[in-house]
Amino acid sequence: MERISTHQFIKLAAALVLGQSFLSAGSLSTMIAGRDGWIATFLGFLAGIPFILLALSISFRYPGKNFLQITEQVLGKWLGKIIGVIYILLTIRFGTLIVSQGVDMYTRTVLPIMSHYVIVLGILLIIIYLFYSGIEVLGRFSEVIYPIIFLSLIFIAIFIFPHFEHGELFPILADGLVPIIKVSVQVLTWPLGYILFLAGLLPFIPREKKEQKKMYKGVIRAVIIVSILSTLLVVVQISTFGPFEAARLTYGLLVLSNMVEVLNAISGVEVIFTLIWMGSIVLKSTALIFAGYWGIQTIFGIKGKIASIFLCLLYILIPIWLFRGSALVVSIWEMNQFIITPFVIVWLLILWGGDKWKRRKKAA
Amino acid sequence: MEKKKKSSLKLSLWLIILLLIPVFLGGCGGKKEVEELAFIIGIGVDVGSEEGSYLVTMQMAKPPVGSESGGGEVENFTVSVEVERLSLLTEKVIEAFNKTPFTGTVRVIILGEELAQQGINEVLDYFQRFYQYRRTIFMLLAKGNAKDIMENKLRSSELPSLSMIDILEGQMEFNTIPVTRLGHYLTILGRVSQCPLIPIVEVIKPGQKEIEYSAEKGYEQLIGDSGIFHEGKLVDTLNDIETKGYLWLNDEVSGRYILIESDKFRVVARVTSSKTKYKVKEMEEGMGITFRIKTQAFLSEVVEKGEGKGIKGIKEWEDFVKEVEILLREAIQKECEEAVEKSKDIEMDFIGIGRKIEMKNPKYWKEIKDTWPEELVDFPVEYDIHIDINQTGLSRSGPGSFNK
Amino acid sequence: MKNPWLKMFKELTIRSHVKKVRKSPELPIDQEWDKPISFFEIKKELEKSTDIVFRRFKVRGKEDVPCALGVVDGLIDKHLLDAFVLRILMVEGVADPIFREINRKNIVDMLLDVFTPANEIKKINTMGEAVDAILSGDAVLFVEEGKEALVISARGWETRGIATPENEAAIRGPKEAFNESLRTNTSLLRRKIKHPSLRIIAMKIGELTRTDLVIVYVEKLASQDVVKEVQDRLERVKIGGLVAGDVLEEFIEDFPYSPFPQVNVTERPDIVASDLLEGRVVVLVDGTPTALVVPATLNKFMQVNEDYYERAMIVILVRFIRYLGAVIAVLAPSLYIAITNFHQELLPTNLALSIAASREATPFPALIEAFLMLTVLEILQEAGLRLPKPIGQTIGIVGALVIGDAAVKASLVSPIQVIVIGITAVSSYAIPSYDLAIAIRLLRLPLMIMAGTMGFFGLGIGMYFVLIHLLKLRSFGTPYLSPIAPFKVRAFLQDTFVRAPWWALKKRPQLIDIEDPNSKGRK
Fold it and tell me: Closest to B41 (Cβ–Cβ): which among C340, C349, C415?
């Protein structure tokens, strides 16, 4: 059985919570919260911590089992199967949407006339290769890619500094707390999306007591770092564009990277950033393929090979057939808000309640 | 173990085949060799001859044919095309020229005066939508037609656009004109209360604007003053002093030369750094704004006149410098006042006072928001200027002053 | 298996060589291998080669015992045998009263215990052992009608002296290199590590060549799993002739179809010794002046021994340059193609103009141009590699004149392209390991094609592909990109891109699995 180390687990968590969210976070958070979008982003990510910890703590009570198996054990076979099917469909749709977002990122900017299926196949090539290389390699991939993504984002923040507009962040909290809370709830979906992957990953993480403590701490630290990073990026976008412009741009960060000029000589480096960010898209959608793969194996008991081929085909075909760049950001947003957030929260709470109730019954 | 290895190998075979499919079927989209491109440096937009059309001037740099070194010199290659919308530009040009215009190198947009009066926001949509145009592109307002300015033959035979870019980038040390980039313009546009400024570029004949030169080889161009835009339309222009006042108030000054004159002396002070802060607070006439400018400067020229000529002692110099400081303060304040005066005159908030109120006192801003530009007329503005003259150059008094 | 492709790839699996053993010619003696010694049969078989000599003589003890000394001429030290075997047995010993007690029955033991003053001697009793001993250069003392024989070690053949390393030049550090003699090589290691924990295990590989080899490791430092795995893999090697130890590399590596080297090959004993002390396992083969070191990780190929002899501050710079060189060597041509064909906005305007000007008159697209230049470069490299030194300079002149100058003057290629390819070539020489440099040369071409068809996107796909491949690779259980991924803090900070000063290297690196990582003192 393959295993990932605690360090890889934490890096994976950080990379997946960050995911591709940084691409559209600026636009989506300033749309409602305006100048205070960054506060909302910060709070939204932090709010994900308790959910992730809850998921981990449930799983530690059932070592070696993934969430679907735990669900079947706690809530009974049929409810477990129903949740499992929803889970599989969700991961497939979400994963393919993320692939489409990668394609969208390219076609909107550096490769406007490249046919989109070429980009889909190109990205999928990497994703499938990574998927077939196994979960260990995914862990190592995140160890390599996450620091690079992190540095690329910091690099943008530093080099965009000369283009900051004066005092765009102020006044703080002019419109009160309501829009901030609204946006925070929306931002919460990114850490919750990570739980989708975590649900399947659980059998592969270390089981020792000592490591569990490390994992709790590591995940908290990872999410905090990611929330600080995302907040920084939203701050940078608001300070550069102003809230109105930031809300208007589809991928604010791409425009930012477009503006980076190093010593007046090197400009137009957005293509390099798109390459780096492709890594995060690959990482996230591969993670979701894994999630779907484990889901199919658990729920239907299909052999690994068939399930994987089936999944890979879906991942290739859905982005090619259903690609619509103009509506993409909206559909991802709707998917996040109206499906993933409620699904994960309800699932976690039911599981937690069921587990508690069962324990009490046992004790009695 | 062995079995697993086999399957992974087979997989890599399939992957490679899968990889080759996109490469050979769909690749090459957007491929263009670098020598097939004409690099556009600047784009000028004027009103076209027909209703709703534009006369677009593209200034392209062309490498001189047959040069082996390829270095430095470029040939000017400027074309004007009349199109209904700006995006149609490339299509039109490609019919007539053997090279594809490449917009990734555009650094400056020049807007014709007539177009500016009709409104420029529609034009800008194209520039902010296509990824190759950066938000760091400079914007300039042409005095007259943009086409004339771009077709002007400079004495240095440099491309006018390149020369404009150099002028704007040279602003780092001395700030006499506001530098407006596309992104900055769009951001200001987002603040409803503020009117963006765009600096004006014009061709000057010998003798104009106090500049003399020989016009044998061509004419010089000059960037100065600025136009005020309201809802995308040019409504008024600021003269030199008002523009400088705007720069002081918006903390965009880091270097300047300022002439100070009194009945005793004539001094030029060079500002080396300056910082502007502001405060919105209750004043005698109600809520008002205070600009607090902290400036460091040194004396670059001292000419004494009248009686009491020849200041000798070091102690005397200290008094003299203090006197200069007071006068310098007045000079700066005058520039600022001119700008505010203009702003009140035309009821346009190009200084961004409204935005400054919003930052410092959002509650009060909400009250006056709806009546803002009109409210400006009797909005009290105060100045609190600190000058620090930290050195007077290598010598103290002027040459020959000891003789007397 | 109907699909011929699949069939082919099935055959190309990792251990297919285990199944297919090349048949060696069978001699009559091969069937007698395990039987008791019969001198006459051995003589009959071996006498056919003229270099094998049998000196027959009689030991005149209680009775005359006919004996024979079998040696390979040229492999033994004749002087030694004459002085300490023949002279004693035939002349000097006869005077000894004990010598008179020798008879047919006790002769072997008597000779072993008393009358053969050689320091390495042992009793054998099978045909195979005897033949092996003779052919390996030992002298075998037969009792003609007996069933036992004595192997006397009197090896003495011509060897090259210990020379300075030719391919791994260094300014500081020891200047000795391995040579073709296995014993010399092990002695070089033993002289560096004088501790009982240095283990040297002997093996023989090759049906015909019967080549000696040793596995060297330090007990308690090297992981037992790795040692066992090396032993297992070597035992599985079935090969007729092992002429050079380098052949083994292909047999024991984990991923034979990866361009990346997975076994470290070096000719310097100091490198091997420090590798041993890091817990690696070394294979030395007789007749080969290089050592194979496993497990190998990617960053090991980017390090040289001098990194540890120079001061740490200098090493930081030097390593940075080396990694930079590697990156440029992989990417420079494809970056140039991608930028000039797809993403011209990356170029500063002046540079774009001068590239455009220089390319104006050239006939080929950038991809073909780069392809041509690289081909010529590769040919030049290959041609220069094997030329005698005096002619080697010609290649340089031809290369510089024809490729550099004339091609540009004739407008065949653009000067920028020449610069790009030149930088690529120079950078690839900054990679210390020749094996890795070749791997990088292999990667360059596909990356160029990807960049030429899909620009940066294609280049990115290619790079990610290589990255995932590297992440997947393992060398004897150690992930190839260790300590970057899986991330090992100490190893990463102390000895990967930078090297911490020696006094800070208190613990052993975590590059590979070792038994006792906390033992103090790194080397």
Answer: C349
